[in-house]
Amino acid sequence: MEKEIIVYHNPRCSKSREAITILEESGKTFTIKEYLKDTPGIKELKDLITVLAINPIDLVRKGEDEYKTLIKDKNLTSDQIISVLSENPKLIERPIVITNNKAVIGRPPSLIIDFIK
Fold first, then answer.
1. How many CB atoms lie within 10 A of CB 26?
2. Do the beta carbons of residue 28 and residue 6 sit within 8 Å?
3. 27 and 116 in contact (C-beta within 8 Å)?
4. Where do the domains of the chain lie?
5. How do residues 53-86 score in pLDDT, each as one tens digit?
6. Which residue among the candidates 1, 5, 13, 59 is catalytic per the annotation?
7. Which residues contact 68 (CB under 8 A, 6 or more apart)?
């Protein structure tokens, strides 16, 4: 049985669109989660961070203006960072592909190719 694949996707992001293309070309079935419309809550973000095996700050897009105003130089706790991500999903790094209780941030998107094999 094929494992479910979920991709956290932002259609406006070229890397995220590239990830969708890779998944489509793989022939595998996957579900798209447009996280800007269907914002992950605190628990979902904590679960995602656990599966990615990263620190919350590693899930943050540091090039966004919101990072500079809400997180940078603020000495926030992990829970505070997760709360900011939940309230500002634009700050969540993308694309993220999850399958079989494992996950990868697809930057570069080529990381997804080996991940879904």
1. 14
2. no
3. no
4. 1-35+94-117, 40-91
5. 999 999 999 999 999 999 999 999 999 999 999 9
6. 13
7. none
Do 35 and 9 touch, CB atoms closer than 8 A?
A: yes
Res 11 pLDDT > 90: yes
Structural contact between residues 21 and 47, judged by C-beta atoms closer than 8 angstroms = no
And the tokens for 21? 């293309």
Reply yes or no on whether 13 is catalytic.
Answer: yes
From its phi and psi, is residue 58 left (phi > 0), alpha (psi between -120 and 50) or beta? alpha
DSSP code at position 100: T
Quote the radius of gyration of the chain (alpha carbons, Å). 14
> CA 51, 56, 58: angle at the middle one, nearest 5?
90
CATH second-level architecture of 1-35+94-117?
3-Layer(aba) Sandwich (3.40)
